[in-house]
């Protein structure tokens, strides 16, 4: 199979690494060919703390995905998270240079570059510069100004940066595994691409990717991302609470969380019970499920409250009509959607991957949302390099042309 038809996403998480290999169909959709997972101990709350352990987990996950897909890959699109991610909205202004004051693709490139020309420390790496809207002579709300007449062109953009050291260490771990990080994508964006509908982006929506070590947040409205953030808490903290509260091993706590856990005590039957193993060979004992829920609920509420506080800093956050989409591994916890509705006082739904075929578990499991979003990011990039013609494309291809020349993803 030609490499131009293959897209590989690599989700390097705090407790596991997920590799997903997909074929890009002629309609631009993804057909999943292989998924590989491997436990990981090389990251803590999204930050790489053990290079060798991370490299080994990456190698194992990709090898398993390659075996399932029956092919080999070299380049991967990898996601990055952690509390080192930062975002800011910026504006750039230029004078229109085209004949008869007509906005040209070169004007678009220059105004985006002007918007990203911030005093960013050398310790930071710019991951994405995402145009939100353009203004021509104070006329706002323009998505594609090429061909319009005007004297002044402005661009409002969302810029996402990361620790340059964190980016390089992530790339090094992948290189040690024998692969190449072709793109590094902020996890909140990747998850959003996989699960959000276009009308949700336009009406305004909060995307919460509740992973093991971190909760990644993205806020969209008017079709563009306006805020991204990372909260340094996730499902691993819930598991740890269960292990301590019930005095049971971590492995058992994780299994109990997945099989019996609930984010809201009100959803649990009072008389229901389960048997849990003891620590250090102690005898198992029975507990009621409402006791388990009473341990989980406060941590879930803390995570969601921090996310709501983050969103509350945005002007106009009360007008996010599409509400909340919850995805990620911890989204499968019973009552998670209802808990989000209660904390945010907004409608919520579970975020399942969309626009994908092939392996059934990829299409219906929020655990794979980030890996699928990363593969989606890889897919247009490969098609563009395989089929791009000389010259400057116009109209609908302008966005892809810009994406090839500036960090322009969204």
Automatic annotation (TrEMBL):
Signal sequence residues: none
Major localisation: membrane
Compartmental location: Cell membrane
GO biological process annotation, one example: FtsZ-dependent cytokinesis
Domain SHS2 positions: 7-195
CDD domains listed in its UniProt record: ASKHA_NBD_FtsA
Keyword Membrane (UniProt): yes
UniProt keyword terms in alphabetical order: Cell cycle, Cell division, Cell membrane, Membrane
InterPro entries (alphabetical): ATPase_NBD (IPR043129), Cell_div_FtsA (IPR020823), FtsA/MreB (IPR050696), SHS2_FtsA (IPR003494)
Membrane topology: Peripheral membrane protein
NCBIfam families: ftsA
Quaternary assembly: Self-interacts. Interacts with FtsZ.
Family the entry assigns: Belongs to the FtsA/MreB family.
Biological function: Cell division protein that is involved in the assembly of the Z ring. May serve as a membrane anchor for the Z ring.
The protein's name: Cell division protein FtsA
Provenance organism: Eiseniibacteriota bacterium
């Amino acid at each position: 199979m030609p490499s131009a038809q293959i897209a590989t996403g690599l989700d390097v998480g705090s407790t596991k690494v997920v590799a997903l290999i997909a074929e890009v169909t002629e309609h631009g959709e993804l057909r999943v060919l292989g998924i590989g997972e491997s436990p990981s101990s090389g990251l803590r709350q999204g930050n790489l703390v053990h290079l060798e352990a991370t490299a080994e987990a990456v190698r194992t996950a990709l090898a398993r995905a390659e075996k399932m897909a029956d092919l080999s890959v070299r380049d991967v699109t990898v996601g990055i998270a952690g509390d080192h991610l930062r975002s800011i909205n910026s504006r750039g202004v230029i004078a229109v240079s085209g004949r008869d004051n007509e906005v040209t693709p070169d004007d678009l490139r220059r105004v985006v570059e002007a918007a990203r020309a911030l005093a960013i420390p050398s310790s930071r790496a710019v991951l994405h510069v995402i145009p939100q809207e353009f203004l021509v002579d104070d006329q706002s709300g323009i998505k594609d100004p090429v061909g319009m007449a005007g004297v002044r062109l402005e661009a409002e953009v969302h810029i996402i940066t990361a620790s340059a050291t964190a980016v390089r260490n992530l790339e090094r771990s992948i290189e040690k595994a024998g692969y190449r990080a072709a793109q590094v994508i902020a996890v909140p964006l990747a998850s959003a691409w996989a699960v959000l509908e276009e009308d949700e982006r336009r009406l305004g929506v909060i995307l919460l990717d509740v992973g093991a070590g971190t909760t990644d947040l993205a806020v969209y409205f008017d079709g563009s991302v306006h805020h991204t953030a990372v909260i340094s808490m996730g499902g691993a903290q819930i598991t740890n609470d269960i292990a301590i509260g019930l005095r049971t091993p971590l492995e058992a706590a994780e299994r109990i969380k997945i099989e019996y856990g609930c984010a809201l005590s009100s959803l649990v039957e009072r008389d229901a019970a389960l048997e849990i193993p003891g620590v250090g060979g102690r005898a198992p004992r029975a507990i009621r499920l409402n006791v388990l829920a009473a341990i989980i609920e406060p941590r879930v509420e803390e995570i969601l409250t921090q996310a709501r506080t983050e969103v509350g800093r945005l002007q106009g956050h009360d007008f996010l009509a599409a509400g909340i989409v919850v995805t990620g591994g911890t989204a499968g916890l019973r009552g998670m959607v209802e808990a989000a509705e209660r904390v945010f006082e907004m409608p919520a739904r579970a975020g399942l991957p969309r626009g994908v075929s092939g392996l059934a578990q990829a299409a219906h499991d929020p655990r794979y949302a980030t890996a699928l979003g990363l593969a989606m990011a890889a897919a247009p990039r490969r098609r563009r390099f395989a089929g791009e013609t000389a010259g400057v494309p116009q109209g609908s291809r302008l966005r892809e042309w810009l994406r090839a020349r500036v960090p322009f993803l969204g």
